[in-house]
Amino acid sequence: MATKASRAAARLMISPAVLLLLGWMIVPLSMTLYFSFLRYNLLMPGMEEFTGWTNYRFFLTDPAFTAALWNTLLLVGGVLLITTVGGTLLALLMDQPFWGQGIVRILVIAPFFVMPTVSALVWKNMFMNPVNGLFAHLAKFFGLQPYDFLAQAPLGSIIFIVSWQWLPFATLILLTALQSLDQEQLEAAEMDGAGPLSRFFYIMVPHLARAITVVILIQTIFLLSVFAEILVTTNGGPGVASTNLTYLIYMQSLLQFDVGGGSAGGVVAIILANIVAIFLMRMIGKNLEA
Amino acid sequence: MGRITLDKVTKSFGDVNVIPPLDLTINDGEFVVFVGPSGCGKSTLLRLIAGLEDVTSGQIRIDGEDATDMPPAKRGLAMVFQSYALYPHMSVRKNIAFPMKMAGVPQDEQKRRIEAAAKSLNLTDYLDRRPGQLSGGQRQRVAIGRAIVREPSAFLFDEPLSNLDAALRVNMRLEISELHNALKTTMIYVTHDQVEAMTMADKIVVLRAGNIEQVGSPLELYHTPQNEFVAGFIGSPKMNLIRGAEADKHGVATIGIRPEHLAASTESGLWQGTVGVAEHLGSDTFLHVHDHGLGSEPLTVRVDGEMPVRHGDRIFLTPDESKLHRFDMQGLRA
Amino acid sequence: MARKVTTRRKAVVTVLAWLVGLAIFFPILWIVILSFKSEGDAIKTPFEVIFSSWTFESYATVQERSNYFRHFLNSVVISLGSTVIGLVIAIPAAWAMAFVPGRRTKDVLMWMLSTKMLPPVGVLVPIYLIFRNLGLLDTRLGLVIVLTLINLPIIVWMLYTYFKEIPGEILEAARMDGASLKNELIHVLTPMAVPGIASTLLLNIILAWNEAFWTLNLTAAKAAPLTAFIASYSSPEGLFYAKLSAASTMAIAPILIMGWFSQKQLVRGLTFGAVK
């Protein structure tokens, strides 16, 4: 609904953003795709040649890939489970009236603003370190043997650290959704004779379902790319015990300088991320219409 | 001056044709009301005149000059929007000053016009407030003030009273009419409310689906509606439209009789029926008469407020033959 | 409507909520405490840590040994630079999509969003090679470019949702009042959108400040922002808890404060308007 003049102006104003993003998407993507079919190692310059699907075959049949895929799923799934369940419970708690709501809210969301390298290093050193960490001190206080979290349960420890970072996000979004629930609906249900449990399951849960889906989808996008936390804690080890896909591709590309192999891995990662993205986009798209 | 001519103007949104070819002339100083049900294209027509939308084809002339491709700012028209569209971050004074600032009117002249407008609109005490601190009626006045100071060749009003409560609406209606009498400037006013149209207009344009159904003065439309649609739309309560055997007696497809042109009696009359709901307004009473054998719709009758009728009473009705409207198969006046 | 709540119930909830809140916040509190201790005290048992003496020496050491301030400045330049450039590109685009929507506006929005879902590792190799060839590796400019591009979709989206809430009639009124497109943007839209623009700015500074994939992979010593600088503590040498704590405290404090101010916008920005 506008005039030709304003439509022309609009096209002009939107084009820088569109062109930049188009370039950002197309140039590197086509390069990744191109490299993935080349034998290309930065340590052996000038030896590039077309190899067809070889890079993909090597990448997909590498036992490290299977392990990394599995670790990625465990990492994403574990963090999602902890943050959505924990986030729902926390949101329900914080939706109750109590003294100091504002301050507690601030305390709870704080971890989300801590940069990944800081939170990973703090948990690694100050808490999980088997000699000087707080958990070790606590274990010794109770006469127990200190546990070397990152060596014994590297993936579990990383899941824990990442969950700490993302719990605030889930809580905040679910709390926002909960607060947007019409109080009159709850009162109507109460008048209709619904007890607290029925109110929770028949009114609150359906209302939250949408927000929970959003939390799951958005976190998945970010969690598929967890990198810094692994880099500064375990370096993916021991072995490949805590290597996820992102980290595996990073190692192949920038540590082993295998551009071809890394690119093949990159294409695989893009495909996997797109599967999630399609669902997310559909949800957001629907919302755009509403 | 403010003579606006539309010449074969059309408007389509994609494949949807909102305004079929339309011709209309609005004379200088006229108060013209576009009225019609929602979706009839009246607002679109106003926006075409304003320049907020492009015409698909045809020509718009303002004072003889082709304005079809002029941007809104150059057309010399002022508009009052349904939501008032006041700038929330500016004081009342700055809101009113904005069009003058854009036009580069000198400061002291701006000041003079703001004060004159504020005085005539009772806004003097509110000049330093923000729109958010004003009531609906006051916001409406600010919007009008912002339009007045531009000294436009015509004012455009897009359903300006629909966000006000009933009592305020009546007041503002009078104020806008008085403003027109004082300024003698062309005004084009869009509304879906036929009462506003009847009470304010010099000339009413009745629209349906982008087509002009009839153009005329309020009383012309009331006395000689050119078709069934206008007959049913103008006048309150609505005209009774009767088809079938009773219409055949008059040799037409439909006859129409306004509620105020039916004589009611408890003893005798041409038609008879049972009183359903009786709406007592004090001065008048509106009766909804059922079982009259003239069709499935109840007949509406206006009777004197003192007439003692109740739900379920038997009642006789006689139409005033001279006030009977006759329509043919196409719904046109016969 | 306020529901009736007994004081006893409220007290129980208060205790529970504060316990949970403090537990979640504890790691942050702990590094702030450790940052004011000597290295020798920082590794002792918690009880001993609390009652040991307080000192600023770690803050001084961090600055002295590693030129902390330079990395801090890198972070400021990179996050602020990428956000401001992003806004300059995004404001006109969001204006166009919010107020002059066309048939394809929705598709453009969704497509912009989809670029955000590209896993960064998928384009790591080409970006690395392009940067190496253009001499952009380990430069602030390089990071400003990358972070502008990866956050641009979020900036456009956030602004779009804010602009959508401004009634189009007000802009039309400005047009009727004789304002040119430029004046319409400067005198009417921008002042009305200031709160939205400010929260977009805030959220994107936070996201850029904490970005830890590209900053780690594209910088070495020179242009490293705080994320990369802190990562250098992953290979420990001697006692470093207090120094790590001091460096971390300084790295997270400004963003934590900004974050607390932008809670509400955070939800909106990160869910692309799907939850409000």
Helix share bin of chain C: over 70%
> What's the CATH topology label of the largest domain in chain C?
MetI-like fold
**DSSP summary: helix tally of chain C:** 14
Mean pLDDT level of chain C: 86
The spatial strand order of the largest sheet of chain A comes to 1-2
- Whole-number count of domains of chain C: 2
Task: Please compute the radius of gyration of chain A using only Cα atoms.
Answer: 24 Å
CATH architecture of chain A: Orthogonal Bundle
For the sheet with most strands of chain C, the description reads:
none
Element pattern of chain A in H and E = HEEHHHHHHHHHHHH
The quaternary state of the protein chains shown equals heterotrimer
pLDDT under 50 segments of chain A (min length 5)? none
Number of domains of chain A: 1
| Mean pLDDT over the full residue set of chain A | 86
Would you identify the CATH H-level superfamily of chain A? MetI-like
Q: What's the helix and strand layout?
A:
The complex is a heterotrimer of chains A (290), B (334) and C (276).
Chain A: H1 4-35, E1 38-39, E2 49-50, H2 54-61, H3 63-95, H4 101-109, H5 116-127, H6 134-141, H7 149-152, H8 154-179, H9 183-191, H10 196-223, H11 228-233, H12 245-255, H13 259-289
Antiparallel strand pairs in A: 1-2
Chain B: E1 4-13, E2 16-26, E3 31-35, H1 42-50, E4 57-62, E5 65-66, E6 77-80, H2 92-103, H3 107-120, H4 136-148, E7 154-158, H5 166-183, E8 186-191, H6 194-200, E9 203-208, E10 211-216, H7 218-223, H8 228-233, E11 240-243, H9 245-249, E12 254-257, E13 262-265, E14 271-280, E15 284-290, E16 299-304, E17 314-319, E18 325-327
Parallel strand pairs in B: 3-8, 3-9, 6-7, 7-8
Antiparallel strand pairs in B: 1-2, 1-4, 4-5, 9-10, 11-12, 12-18, 13-17, 14-15, 14-17, 15-16
Helix pairs in contact in B: 2-4
Chain C: H1 7-35, H2 39-42, H3 46-51, H4 57-66, H5 68-99, H6 105-116, H7 124-134, H8 140-164, H9 168-176, H10 181-210, H11 214-218, H12 226-231, H13 241-261, H14 263-270
